[in-house]
Amino acid sequence: MASKLIFVTGGVLSSIGKGITASSIGTLLESRGLKVTIQKLDPYLNVDAGTMNPYQHGEVYVTEDGAETDLDLGHYERFTSATMKRINNVTSGQIYQEIIQKERKGEFLGGTVQVIPHVTNLIKEKIRQLMSTDVDAVIVEVGGTVGDIEGLPFLEAIRQLGAEVGRSNAIYIHVTYVPYVKAAGELKTKPTQHSVKELRAIGIQPDIIVCRAERSIPSAVKKKIALFANLKEHEVVTAKDLPTIYEVPLVLQKERLDELIIEKLQIPTNKEADLTQWKEVVNRIKKPTEGSVRIAIVGKYVELPDAYKSIIESFVHAGAANNVKVEIKWVNAEDLTTTPAEELLSDVHGVLVPGGFGERGIEGKIEAVRFARERKIPFFGICLGMQCAVIEFARNVAGLKGANSAEFDRDTPYPVIDLMEEQKGIEEKGGTMRLGAYPCVLKEGTFSFKAYGRKEISERHRHRYEFNNAFRETLEKAGLVIAGTSPDGKLVEVVEIKEHPWFVAVQYHPEFKSKPMNPHPLFVDFVKAAKAIRDSREVAS
Ligand code: GLN
Description:
Elements: E1 4-10, H1 18-30, E2 36-42, H2 54-57, E3 61-62, E4 68-69, H3 72-79, E5 89-91, H4 92-104, H5 115-128, E6 137-142, H6 152-165, E7 170-177, E8 180-181, E9 186-187, H7 190-201, E10 208-213, H8 219-229, E11 236-240, H9 248-254, H10 257-265, H11 276-286, E12 292-299, H12 309-322, E13 325-332, H13 341-345, E14 350-353, H14 362-374, E15 379-382, H15 384-396, E16 404-405, E17 415-419, E18 434-442, H16 447-452, E19 456-463, E20 465-467, H17 472-477, E21 480-485, E22 492-497, E23 503-506, H18 521-540
Parallel strand pairs: 1-6, 1-7, 2-5, 2-6, 7-10, 10-11, 12-13, 12-14, 14-15, 15-23, 16-17
Antiparallel strand pairs: 3-4, 8-9, 17-20, 18-19, 18-21, 21-22, 22-23
Helix pairs in contact: 1-3, 1-9, 5-6, 11-12, 12-18, 14-15
The structure holds glutamine.
EC number: 6.3.4.2
Protein name: CTP synthase
Binding site for CTP: 14, 148-150, 188-193, 224
């Protein structure tokens, strides 16, 4: 059987959880034994998300093969077992870049190059690249909302593709928002009506409407939406707000969304969806039996949690694994340069310094490391957080006064973090960092080895700077543990310190690989260490 296509579009407004809906459809189909993959079509003109500021776009999610993608791909991997690759995120920027390169080479043989058919053909080709005999369904999420000018070529392409593969091989699911207007005491269907109208004007008749709403949508309201959209009542599905995103597949299953999809696409499966394990995790997320731990994330985008999406989700998974709720205390790194760490961090059971770029907030992050190291509070450093841990250790333990990363201070006497050899001479910004999965070998007896339970691991990277080997001996002599390196021993990927409850700093991004059912071992052990500190403080007081 060739892959079936499930197109997911959005209406009314953005951020209504289209990505979670697409992911949950993946979960549901997988739970019926089907093989799925998910693709995101992003209408913006950036070639990828890599050059975008987190304020604009939230986290940049890195795939195994080193693509810098939209954060929705993180949800796709967390909700399904599909491995995301470069082809799973297609942007207008990529499409136009490819077309213009071809045009310059003269490959259009003198023809006029146009949105239809050239742009739409290439979009269709990108979707077809994921269709194969070993994938039962390709879920394609179109970014933005119906009605956006820049999204038109994508909608036109999915309209054409649906017609090409035929009725029972493609369906259109439209995700909309049904607001509750307090003053009227009513759920309002008008915005949904308008967005369906907009979709129809482009030539797409939705097969299913998923209504996001604060509360359950009563039958009468569903009927009204169905009437305007040419659908039956059961083809209008509610997805109301939930305490955790991981509950969405369960609720959509109750609304029989998977049954509907399978029926419409005539997918031969008689297997019932089995979500037993998924339910167990959701239960532990919602009702952890062992209280909560408080963990500080010391970063510079603290008012914008989307910038740290995968880290937040990793804590949800690790919390469930430890049967605790992880409360995140957002600490603005810059505040640590004006307010004593004692005041900002003494109530937390763990400190995490995440990745980042640029000088702002650096001294505050280094101060957070010092506090966690000296006060023996579990510490987890990720990417820039690892680099800050090395700088702190160099300055305050190894006595290298003024040590810094060459990224922030070109004239530092001790550049303990320096530009990677392979990065020297690179001028272009997009897609040029050290990106994607690389192997790493851990040292036995370390916190990391204990967490992973094995020596050889593979993790994803996104950086230009690295531990400077010129200082390796000095720092090791002062007590820094080099707990993980590249297999040839040349690149330092993990550092730790001893005589501490838990202090691990990694050059890579473990958060990209954590899943609800397969929580990342470093996050699990970090939360476990935080829990132990919490308990020991309770005994002491
Ligand atoms: N700015 C640092 C580097 O490029 C860290 C990058 C990161 O944290 N992702 O090496």
